[in-house]
Design brief:
Strand content of chain B: 5-15%
Structural class of chain B: alpha/beta
Largest interface: A-B, 71 and 70 residues
Order of helices and strands of chain A: EHHEHHEHHEHEHHEHHEHEH
Chains: A alpha/beta, B alpha/beta, C alpha/beta
Radius of gyration of chain A: 17 Å
Distance between the termini of chain A: 20 Å
Largest sheet of chain B: 6 strands, parallel
Number of strands of chain A: 8
Helix content of chain A: 40-55%
Helix content of chain B: 40-55%
Number of domains of chain A: 2
Number of helices of chain A: 13
Structural class of chain A: alpha/beta
Oligomer: heterotrimer
């Protein structure tokens, strides 16, 4: 039975704990033993993106220390796992580099881990709904997450109705969402409009931050299907 | 005369909002959607060419001084006069000096972002010289008194109706809102300018060091006019446009064209090797090339050296979710889009456009689209740090390079190697202290607190307490300090029980969640 | 193989809105070119006197026979009259099938503007000068001495600047006729 260390992400831990729970349940349904290293924290992405890499460095070194005992580290966030991959080896300093590279090589986003590493496309969930997929940018471009969520959805019996521009940014972008709300908001509208155009019942993605932004906008406009994390969507169909 | 079409003192946020609220601008920008997947096709069908092009560009940058030296020697052997301009002012002075010495009264310009960068049009006009932009899109923005808003399609922001209005004013008659008629009017009108002009000013897409060949790429043929008819040709060449070999064009030009417009090849290429020769009836009698530095060589050996690999295809603009929504004028800079957000602060040594790197969601579509594999999104992240750090490579200025100095070639960096963050922490305080120091200290404190399990738990607990105050049913409609979010979106609040708490409970219960 | 190259070239140039004629054997190519040239009324037919392919086909003599009004590039008033010419005839150096582009060379007796100013450009292309790829053409050219101007032509002048829909006939010729010359 493979052991997986859950990297829950600060967003899921604090704001979307259900997503953390769903992630654990899916991994367990796929036959994993899940451990949760208590000492974990944030991946540091907000600091990196705000031009404060020194703050991120501490968090990155912490991550390496906390997670390097484990064979696989899985998070429900393409951007957080993506940050580990994309930045850590260059951020932590020369004396930490090899350790950071080694940990990054074992850090995955959830759907990527299930499909590519475990080969567990069918985790026993059955959800016969129509769904459209938003390809969250960092998971897509840093980790190559694209086919994996779709494979899981199809295996669960969901009907995928592809939106136009599924790969176009939803407009969240971290501090961009606050600093440039005048662009961020309309980009959310574009994404929700494209999603609405598919007439799918659900809008699914692998990044809690995108979903927070889209759901927050949708509550004001009512446009588009319900944004939901892939893990939360599938878990509803577990026996 | 080129003016800024923006309100002085406006911010990018204000200009973006104005652009998004402008229905004609939005309608015009949707025309760019047809180029959304253009650059991707290059990556998919010509991945090996992309690698070669990326390698050629880095080979050049690894010994830029050397290539420029060789190019200068070759050009001079062909009878071309080479001028080295450290700054835009130097470049303008060179052109004006030539114009005045040769009695130039009218100039025709082929599309050139470099001439925009040095503000050449205004300088010539101020000296009493008539300047006419010959690229149709550039001509439209010129007579509309605007800057180009896209490096390949300068008038992308204008609808056909708006273009007709602009051209009609110039024509002194009502032109029909019809493409062929507008093209025909422009052809006749600009032809007269071509035939009368004393000087043609061009940029250069590439200049080959081994043969001294200047390459100008167009679809309309205006580049050909500027390099065939006037008796003097002046080419403004940003220093990174040099390529090692004429032979490199075999892969550079197809990749440039395919990335820019999706065409197999641009309709016209002018490859100029020296001025008019003995017995020829046209072509320039005098050919000048200005090597424009403008802080570019200051970037060599820094992470920003990568930006000099740019071949000005515009692919990053075409895929950028921000550019596609707000258009080029919102940036209020010569270069817009992702590459412009990087180049503007760098060329100005941190004086201009310092807010531009933040106008990005860091989605990475630009990095993906770039045919020469510049890590654009990473450079934006790096700039966010460097522009707040005194003495960083982003604010360096070029040493005096009016003499042809040679530099030992550095290693050829592989594309995608990426920069490593500096190990030493950036200094607090010094220039621009105050707010900057507070912010940096704040972030470092946050990093320290959250790197400690107790610190993380304590601050999260505080967050949950605050949540109870701010909203209901888990959402807040207004949060002090986060107006940029809450004007258009609800904000979810910390959950009553964190995941940690629930995990701990499950552990304790041993019977599920 | 040769035929596939030519077919690709013809297809590309046709898609670029050129008229493509032939391949013809030498003599037929010459008469076809002259017939195409005289078809366009209004303005003289501009002819470079130093173009090897134009010379080899004897275009000049055939134009005289056809009683066409010809403006020769060695005429001292060439530069003055060329803007009002109706047709410009040129040869070419190399052509690329995959990209749909033809390289013309400037020199004494082959002015640049012959293929630029008149509204019709009639271009002679030797079938054996068509190569598959742009890289091949560039390497071939790089091996020899470069002329003062190498001009590559894809088809009639075009622009995307008017709301991104291709519009023809902006600055360069509005019509491009290609005559393919075989053996």
């Amino acid at each position: 039975m493979p052991t997986v260390a859950l990297f829950v992400t600060c967003l899921a831990d604090q704001v979307y704990p259900d997503t953390g729970v769903s992630t654990v349940r899916l991994l367990e349904a796929a036959g994993c033993e899940v451990v949760f290293p208590e000492a974990q924290s944030c991946c540091g992405q907000p600091a990196i993106n705000s031009g404060e890499p020194e703050a991120a460095r501490r968090l990155a070194q912490r991550f390496v220390e906390v997670f390097e005992p484990f064979d696989a580290i899985v998070s429900p966030s393409g951007s957080c796992s993506g940050t580990v991959h994309h930045w850590y080896s260059r951020l932590v300093g020369e004396s930490w580099r090899a350790r950071a590279e080694a940990v990054a090589a074992r850090t995955f986003e959830l759907s990527q881990y299930l499909v590519d590493v475990l080969g567990a496309v069918d985790v026993g969930a059955r959800v016969h709904e129509t769904v459209t997929v938003h390809d969250a940018c960092h998971g897509l471009r840093n980790l190559g997450v694209s086919g994996q969520p779709r494979a899981l959805l199809r295996a669960a019996g969901a009907t995928i109705l592809e939106m136009s521009e599924s790969e176009t940014c939803c407009g969240f972008g971290g501090t961009f969402a606050v600093k440039h709300g005048e662009i961020s908001g309309p980009l959310a509208d574009d994404k929700l409009r494209h999603a609405a155009g598919t007439r799918a019942g659900y809008l699914v993605s692998t990044d809690g931050a995108c979903l927070m932004h889209l759901a927050g906008r949708q509550r004001r406009t009512g446009v588009g299907p319900i944004p939901m994390h892939l893990a939360d969507f599938l878990v509803r169909g577990l026996p | 005369m080129t003016h800024r079409v923006v309100l002085p003192g406006s911010t990018m946020a204000e200009r973006s909002a104005a652009s998004i609220a402008d229905p004609e601008m939005q309608r015009a920008l949707r025309n760019l959607d047809q180029r959304l997947h253009t650059a991707r096709a290059v990556g998919e069908h010509h991945a090996d060419w992309k690698d070669r092009v990326a390698a050629i560009r880095r080979e050049t940058l690894a010994d830029l001084d050397g290539w420029l030296e060789r190019l200068q020697q070759k050009l001079e052997s062909l009878g071309v006069t080479v001028h080295r301009a450290a700054t835009p002012a130097d470049a303008r002075a060179v052109v004006l000096e030539i114009a005045q010495r040769e009695g130039v009264r009218s100039v025709v310009k082929s599309k050139s972002m470099a001439t925009e960068e040095i503000d050449l049009g205004d300088a010539l006009t101020a000296a009493g010289i008539t300047v006419v932009e010959t690229d149709l899109g550039e001509y439209i923005v010129q007579i509309a008194d605007e800057r180009p808003s896209h490096m390949i399609t300068p008038a992308i922001h204008k609808t056909l109706e708006q273009i007709t209005e602009v051209l009609s004013r110039e024509a002194g008659e009502h032109l029909p809102v019809e493409r062929e008629a507008l093209a025909a009017w422009a052809r006749d009108h600009l032809r007269r300018c071509f035939l009368e002009a004393d000087m043609g000013v061009t940029g250069a897409n590439f200049v080959a060091a081994d043969t001294g060949t200047i390459v100008v790429v167009t679809n309309e043929g205006n580049g050909r006019f500027c390099t065939s008819l006037p008796r003097i040709q002046v080419t403004v060449m940003p220093v990174e446009k040099v390529i090692p070999r004429f032979d490199d064009l075999g892969v550079l030009l197809p990749v440039l064209t395919m990335s820019a417009t999706g065409q197999a090849m641009s309709n016209y290429l002018s490859m100029v090797t020296g001025p008019r020769r003995e017995g020829e009836q046209d072509g320039p009698e005098q050919l000048h090339v200005i090597f424009l530095d403008h802080n570019r060589t200051a970037l060599l050996g820094t992470p920003y050296e990568e930006m000099l690999a740019c071949i000005r295809c515009g692919a990053c603009l075409n895929v950028c979710p921000v550019y596609r929504r707000v258009g080029g004028h919102a940036y209020d800079a010569v270069y817009s889009g992702p590459m412009g957000k990087i180049l503007t602060p760098l060329l100005s040594a941190g004086e201009e456009g310092t807010d531009l790197p933040y106008a990005s969601s860091l989605c990475g579509a630009c990095t993906e689209a770039c045919p020469v594999e510049i890590p654009l999104a990473d450079l934006l992240v790096r700039l966010r740090s460097d522009l707040r750090t005194p003495g960083s490579p982003a604010t360096a200025t070029a040493p005096d390079r009016t003499s042809a100095t040679t530099r030992a070639p550095t290693h050829t960096r592989l594309p995608g190697e990426g920069f490593a963050w500096p190990e030493a922490n950036a200094p607090l305080g010094a220039r621009g202290a105050g707010k900057r120091t507070v912010r940096r200290t704040g972030f470092r404190t946050w990093g320290r607190v959250w790197a400690s399990p107790t610190g993380y738990r304590a601050s999260s607990g505080a967050g949950r307490l605050l949540a109870r105050v701010l909203g209901r049913n888990g959402w807040a409609k207004r949060v002090p300090g986060l107006g940029g979010w809450t004007t258009s979106r609800d904000l979810p609040l910390p959950a009553a029980k964190s995941f940690r708490a629930r995990w701990a409970e499950r552990d304790a219960k041993e019977s599920g969640w | 193989m040769v035929s596939a190259t030519v077919d690709t070239f013809v297809e590309r140039m046709t898609n670029n809105r050129c008229g493509v004629h032939g391949p013809f054997a030498r003599d037929e190519a010459a008469s076809a070119a002259v017939a195409l040239a005289v078809r366009h009324p209004g303005g003289e037919i501009a002819l470079p006197v130093g173009d090897p392919l134009v010379d080899a086909l004897g275009i000049s003599a055939l134009l005289v026979d056809a009683k066409a009004t010809v403006l020769r590039s060695d005429d001292p008033t060439w530069n003055e009259r060329l803007p009002n010419a109706g047709v410009g005839i040129t040869g070419s150096v190399v052509a690329v099938a995959e990209r749909g582009t033809i390289a013309l060379s400037s020199g004494a007796g082959t002015p640049r503007a012959t293929s630029l100013l008149p509204p019709v450009h009639l271009c002679l292309v030797r079938v054996d000068a068509i190569v598959d790829t742009f890289a091949e053409a560039i390497t071939r050219l790089a091996a020899g001495a470069l002329p003062s101007a190498l001009i590559w032509v894809g088809g009639p002048s075009r622009t995307g600047d008017l709301e991104m829909k291709t519009t023809f006939g902006v600055h360069g010729p509005k019509t491009v006729e290609i005559v393919l010359v075989g053996d």
